[in-house]
User: What shape does this take?
Amino acid sequence: MTGRVESLCRACQVEAKVDGVALSVLSSAGVPETVFVTDPRSRLVEDLQFTLGEGPCVTAARSRSPVLIEDLRAITAATRQWLAFVHEAESSGICAVFAFPVQVGAIALGTLGLYRARPGPLEPGELRAALRTVDHMASALLDLGLPGGDGVPEAAYRMEVHQAAGMVMVQTDSSIASALARLRATAFSEGVPINDLAADVVAGRRRFFKEEQ
Assistant: This one.
């Protein structure tokens, strides 16, 4: 990512008064892939969403609408969808998450995630700052030649994960979607980053087998 993307994220962190900001772009499968984070905690939460395939940024990408969770501890229709994510995010010290789709018209480019270690909504000025950043970020991504959606080249993302998913698909005689879901579930249950698990699969250190019916 360029300095412009980093500058936008860090400015948003200050103006929206949040503890962390993360930018993801969409893979050809429509999955948010993290490309920049302002801090380790944001990286952890972004990786958690990728591993689980659930969370505010995933929902924002699918719905093309902002997902504003001012208190992860509150039981709502939204948080009920991501019980595993909520549990792990809270354990990491995250109390509020605000996810915004980055798009131009009908073209989906990615998501911008804002995180706080304290509960509470974005104030009007903070929300305006976040939305302003989203608009600027869309322009920045287009300038980088990332058209979003099906047009985004896979080289921009975690190729090792997708390569591993292809190998698991062959090993288990399943679909690519099922193979990726199994990788995610295994990484989460074993408490390891999905990138590390994927590296083991690609290197032949880890093999999956067809599940008994």
